[in-house]
Amino acid sequence: MPLSTHRRIPAVALVALAGFAMPGSPVAWAQTVSMAGQRIVLVVGSPAGGGYDVYGRLVGRHLGAMLPGNPNVVVENMPGAGSLIAANWLAHSAPKDGTAIAILPNATLFEPLFGNTNAHFDLRMMNWLGSLNSQTPIAAVWSPSPFQTAGDLFNQDVVIGASGAASDEARLPRLLNSLIQTKFRVVDGYPGTAGIALAMERGEVQGIVGDGLDSIKATNGSWLRDRKIRILMQVTASRDSELPDVPAALEFVSPDNHDVLEFLISRFTFGRLFMAPPGAPAPIVAALQQGFRKMVDDKEFRRDVERSNITIKFAGAEEVATTQNRLVASPPQVIERATEELRKTDPR
Fold first, then answer.
1. Which residues 6+ apart lie within 8 Å of 124 measured at CB?
2. Average pLDDT, the chain
3. How far apart are CA 139 and CA 200, in angstroms?
4. SS3 for the chain, per residue?
5. The whole model's pTM is what?
6. Separation between Cα atoms, residue 202 and residue 341, nearest integer Å
7. Helix (H, G, I), strand (E, B) or coil at 46
8. Strand-pair partners of 74
9. What is the pLDDT of residues 146-180, one digit of tens each?
10. Per the CATH hierarchy, to which homologous superfamily does domain 13-134+269-329 belong?
11. Identical fold at 13-134+269-329 and 137-267?
12. Domain extents for the chain?
């Protein structure tokens, strides 16, 4: 259920604001924050049941115990417009006192760079907490379908399920059609990846493009164990170590399209990215970052990860910021080409 943007949320207490001098280091800043008795809302920018929801609820179960004062963390879904609704909310309406954080698709955060007039935020202003995984988007088909190898994706139409027209599951197959000449036919309108999964099982569509390997392992592990799907391609620049025999999309691209496809794929570097809103005070951000890092090393968190069949490849806030800034600073001609390719993915 979407959050009310007018709800009054009590501010997190800052000891420093009560008359103490502000220490200089982030660790010292974090020690000035008390979150006792607070309710932190962790917004998931996609529907319940998908990979982002799984990772969001994992963090919701453990982050509070790692923060000063052990606040209560509550997870709420805010889907819509390829997660743009949640991203805009975080940038402009979310409280900036530490009581609101989010997990959003990294690709969504690049929409302003491509001139999307519905994206009202600047990813460089986000306060990164860290990423729990590097995403490996895949192209997979349901086993009864006739497609056996990556080569088949270029020879006959493959009916692919997607949610909204702006979702990764809709855009990625259309980008591949344009840049490497696959023949995906996208049917959108399904409620998130969970809805696409049901459509595959019912035979309404033949596959999915853009869902992450980690997401499938966490939400539909039986697909892999029982060989209900075939993974025919990785929508990546290089092969994931878990899929050494599955070709990467960049292996099929022509020299003219290489740089733009590599840029578009690189937006998925961080698959499970958590952040606080722009403008949050430095002591609060430092406390959240420190708690997030402590959580990743916590034994109970690790046990939960193992029980849930979740993959963790942690990247801290500094690494995330460095990579994001590098991508934003890509050559203008590459960004212009990427923008044009993304515009072509709009079926309207």
1. 324, 325, 328
2. 88
3. 13
4. CCCCCCCCCCCCEEHHHHCCCCCCCHHHHHCCEECCCCEEEEEECCCCCCHHHHHHHHHHHHHHHHCCCCCEEEEEECCCHHHHHHHHHHHHCCCCCCCEEEEECCHHHHHHHHCCCCCCCCHHHCEEEEECCCCCEEEEEECCCCCCCHHHHHCCCEEEECCCCCCHHHHHHHHHHHHHCCCEEEECCCCHHHHHHHHHHHCCCCEEEEEEHHHHHHHCHHHHHCCCEEEEEECCCCCCCCCCCCCEHHHHCCHHHHHHHHHHHHCCCCCCEEEECCCCCHHHHHHHHHHHHHHHHCHHHHHHHHHHCCCCCCEEHHHHHHHHHHHHCCCHHHHHHHHHHHHHCCCC
5. 0.77
6. 32
7. coil
8. 41
9. 999 999 999 999 999 998 777 788 889 999 999 99
10. Bordetella uptake gene, domain 1 (3.40.190.150)
11. yes
12. 13-134+269-329, 137-267
CATH topology of domain 137-267: D-Maltodextrin-Binding Protein; domain 2 (3.40.190)
List CB contacts of 295: < 8 A, sequence separation 6 or more: 59, 62, 63, 65, 66, 301
Q: Give the DSSP letter of residue 25.
A: S
CA end-to-end distance (rounded Å), the chain: 29
Mean pLDDT of the region 252-271: 93
Amino acid at 342: L
